[in-house]
Amino acid sequence: YDPNTPQVMADPARVEQVLVNLIGNAIRYTPSGFIKLRVWQEDTWVWVAVVDTGMGIAQADLPHVFERFWRADRSRDRHSGGTGIGLAISRRLVELQGGMITVQSELGKGSTFRFSLPIA
Q: In this predicted model, what pLDDT tens digit does every residue of 42-85 receive, in sequence order?
């Protein structure tokens, strides 16, 4: 984290909800390894990323991860307590604040979920 990172135009409660969803998923699907939180400025945006070395997501599943009630492995999520709506809610909350959310992942190697918010 860079203390010189500018402030963003955002609802703190909604940003917290997005972070809870993303970090919660990272914890749930990273039985060993690490989870990192990164924050940086790019042009007129502040980006936040949750990076993990967890289970990862298959490439064929990536286009669907932000859909409501969609889960890559239904049996795994049922045991982990996932509802299948956290990422869909996160996407909507970020978009309502003028930002975007993306994912990069490789099965067996981990995932990076990042979202942007406009600089105030």
A: 999 999 999 999 999 999 999 999 998 766 664 444 445 566 79
Domain count, the chain: 1
Tokens of 22: 């993303």
Residue 7 resides in a domain: no
What are the DSSP calls for 17-45, one per residue? HHHHHHHHHHHHT-SSS-EEEEEEEETTE
Q: Which domain CATH number covers 18?
A: 3.30.565.10
* Burial class for 93, CB neighbours closer than 10 Å (0-12, 13-18, 19+): buried
Give the list of residues 6+ apart from residue 8 with CB closer than 8 angstroms, or none.
46, 117, 118, 119, 120
Q: What is the pTM of this model?
A: 0.88
Amino acid at 90: S
Average of per-residue pLDDT across 76-99? 82
